[in-house]
Amino acid sequence: MNPLAHWTDLPAPDAPVPERYHGVWRRTLLETPEGRDTTTAVHWLQTAGWHADLRVPMGIDPATPAGRAQLQGFCGLTRITPAQAGQPEVCTWQREWDVQPPRSTPDAGYMVFETADRVIETGVHGRYLEVWERLPGSTGPSRAQAAHDAQGRPTGWLRFIAGGYQLRVRPRRAPWPADTRPDETLADLVQRHTGAAADLLDFELVFETLPGPAPAFP
Q1: What is the value of pTM for the model shown?
Q2: What is the pLDDT of residue 186?
Q3: Alpha-carbon torsion, ordered 91, 94, 98, 101, to 10 deg
């Protein structure tokens, strides 16, 4: 990514995400009917409108084709639906771009804050429980931005900043193959379309701590 890129803010949603969600959340537990997961490195970065998420299973090497195919990550707008009829409020992550093929159900969870920095998510469209804990130093200024070159042309890079952290994303340019089925995996597609594997794996997701103090946006 060109360090001299010019960054512009992505469009903000009509309904901002409440401030209690802002920051970077690390998943400490996933429970499903199939078992428990405490080893996948999962970070969800939430701004006032946009989110970005990166999930890296333990033991994979993202630098290899096989490892890249197992990554999970996505970004898009977030919508909060207030609590109603005795149910907690719902957070819906609208995936504008996803590492993995499209899902058959929306990504939405019931959210219950145990403390200001710990939230429990349970499934709206599936059976699971996730525990999220907010990283210290992630509640400062936030931004969701796109990069442009010196001629004003989009470079394809996006960045999402919360406090002292950022998640940089470069979506793939290649479309999904015509025979892509909902809920199948990128690894399935790469195996089935070996000639298109390089294009399907041509994306970047980088979660990192920003050097120096958190940026001060106007």
Answers
A1: 0.94
A2: 98
A3: 100
